[in-house]
Amino acid sequence: MGNFSMKENYFKFILYLAVIVLLNFAGITLFFRADLTDDKLYSLSPASKDVVATLSEPLTIKVFFSKDLPAPHNNTERYLRDLLEEYAARGGKFFNYTFYNVTPEEGDLTQNTDENRDMAKDYGIQPVQIRIMENDEVKFKNAYMGLVIIHGDLIEKIETITSTNGLEYQLTGAIQKLNNKVSALLQLKDKVQVNMYLSNSLNTIAPLIGLDQLPMLNKAVADTIEKLNNKILGILELKHIDISDKKNLDTVSKKYNLMALSWPAIPEKNISAGHGAAGLVIEFNGKTNTLPLISALELPIIGTTYQMANPGELEEELNSVVEKLIGINKDIGFLSGHGTHSLMPDRLAMMQGMPSSGMQVLNTLVSSRYSIKQLDLKDGPIPDGLNCLIIARPTQKFSDYELFQIDQALMKGTNIAFISDSFNEIMPQQNSMGMGMPPRYEPIDTGLEALLNHYGIKIKKAYVLDKQSYTQQVPQNMGGGEQNIYFAPMLKENTINNTPQFMDNIKGLVAMQISPLELVEKNIDTTQVTATKLLSSSDESWLMEDSINLNPMFIRPPANEDEMKSYDLAYLLEGNFTSFFKGKAIPEKDMGEKDINEDNKENNTESTLENNKFTGLSAENTFIETSKTAKLFILPCSQMLQDNMLDPQGRSTNATFILNIIDHLNGDDKIAQLRSKQQTLNPVAQTTPLARSIIKAFNIIILPVLVILFGLGVLAKRTARKKKIANRFNA
């Protein structure tokens, strides 16, 4: 120890001050942020980074946000500024944003503010009324809290931003919607190769199989591709390949699943024996997709008939396939007919006072990102360019040919979400006393069950009941209290598989009238297909089978706990599936279904009857036996799609789960992660009474004792140090 001179004290002070100033200067230009939140709430997600990094044309965001707003709206503005700054750092020169002053100065409505308000009005941004507290009084104030995104001639807007929850997802979704196609096409380095395998040798037999226009198909396809090229920046490169050698034909047709025809010599018509193929093979970055130019159908009585691709429809199919290959396809197929749920509310049922089975909320949420195509198998086949097909609660029988269409869609790589019910609820009519009987539940058998069983999943005809279930308040006139709705399991903790990225942060779900699933392991080739369990019930579950009665008053858990166990509730199968129809004859198409143009129906029939004499004609690769890599999602609970189970903003875990599944089936896991990033549901882990008592005792008794002991230890250490110093200086 020693005394420092006054000069040394001044010198140290000046030195410390200089260091502080230099550190502040360095901090202005050299800084970093550390996001310590578990889900990185304050950092851009990978999806957001990718979206702004791929901008190839200027994108401008104009923000109209009133200043000096009270909490929590001031925090929302600050979060928005930070978020846009993060976007700008990633987007570079193509990303620009501006905050416009729409707040009048104290006692002076400036001209600049007037102009900014008029601009906001022109973009459709209107002030909203918010509640504030001033001088212990509740007051209301009009405030601007919106923005517009401008990209070329396209505009998207977010009219009201009242919360930080889901804001990044909204922004990224809107930017992606504007930027997706244009930037993806502009940034393509390689052409999309379209190989047209169309053998000239087929022209000789075309009249015999009802394809008189086949010689003109070559030019029609070329014109279609030229027309499409004008719309998609000329990214397609067409090549015509005439192949008739049998060996080469077999190799190519098996590789690409091309229709291959072989025929014997017909001397009386001066036709030699030959072979030929017809189809389009679209290739990009090692991925391929095939569109048939000739297809074969089996019709009752008539037999085999051949059809040529319609050039008018080919353009739309080709565009969908190209968008799928380059990763910008936003089309979702939704199967209609067969008693499936409707995307719109059933107004007739609502007028009759019955619950509507519509899915308007789901339709709104999905339509914000995807284009939904409603498909009826009676009107035509499933388009080849779909990424995903949703089948929601069919109740009517599918024909074998319709099952064949669904099977072949999966074989072509179309991912399928099958969301079903095991029972059809039949509501009886009221009796003469004005009272109705309870509903009856009839097992549903559509034929799809056989397909799923073949792929490796069995849906059991039962409902899963669970002690860990949703509870509702009982009216006071009925005794009050809470009542468990056992057929509405609450899924949480280890009953939800959070390992897949799209399931991350899904902490709790509510199911309703859900059935158990079983893996049919003998039908799953584990070297080709992986089965991932996504949801299961708790260990306190049991089944309701045969006699179904969902009146909560009459449902009681089993007395014997051995009768309860966990059941699998949702699976995702992924890999290379084997066709249900492998080794079987192709099903005949019902003559009532649309498959032949009315103008050519008579000619096709005559040519087919003529073709029946042409017994030597054979067609190979008329259907696909082994699929490309595809995904099959099975959830036996269509109630989870209903309006009463989803929120219109898509922020609940139920809505997030369903939307994330759809994103995953469309190859958009990053958006799924972004959506679930701000999920805030964290259910408390279930513990035993003993464990709760131990935790309570630790907090009340043991923890304070530990603090006291720590304090006594610190006191003893300081006392010993004082004695040591005193002894050293003989104090």
UniProtKB/TrEMBL annotation:
<dbReference type="InterPro" id="IPR055396">
    <property type="entry name" value="DUF7088"/>
</dbReference>
<feature type="transmembrane region" description="Helical">
    <location>
        <begin position="697"/>
        <end position="716"/>
    </location>
</feature>
<keyword id="KW-0812">Transmembrane</keyword>
<feature type="domain" description="ABC-type uncharacterised transport system">
    <location>
        <begin position="330"/>
        <end position="605"/>
    </location>
</feature>
<feature type="compositionally biased region" description="Basic and acidic residues">
    <location>
        <begin position="591"/>
        <end position="604"/>
    </location>
</feature>
<feature type="transmembrane region" description="Helical">
    <location>
        <begin position="13"/>
        <end position="32"/>
    </location>
</feature>
<protein>
    <submittedName>
        <fullName>Predicted ABC transporter, membrane protein</fullName>
    </submittedName>
</protein>
<dbReference type="Pfam" id="PF09822">
    <property type="entry name" value="ABC_transp_aux"/>
</dbReference>
<keyword id="KW-0472">Membrane</keyword>
<feature type="domain" description="DUF7088">
    <location>
        <begin position="39"/>
        <end position="149"/>
    </location>
</feature>
<feature type="region of interest" description="Disordered">
    <location>
        <begin position="591"/>
        <end position="611"/>
    </location>
</feature>
<dbReference type="InterPro" id="IPR019196">
    <property type="entry name" value="ABC_transp_unknown"/>
</dbReference>
<keyword id="KW-1133">Transmembrane helix</keyword>
<dbReference type="Pfam" id="PF23357">
    <property type="entry name" value="DUF7088"/>
</dbReference>
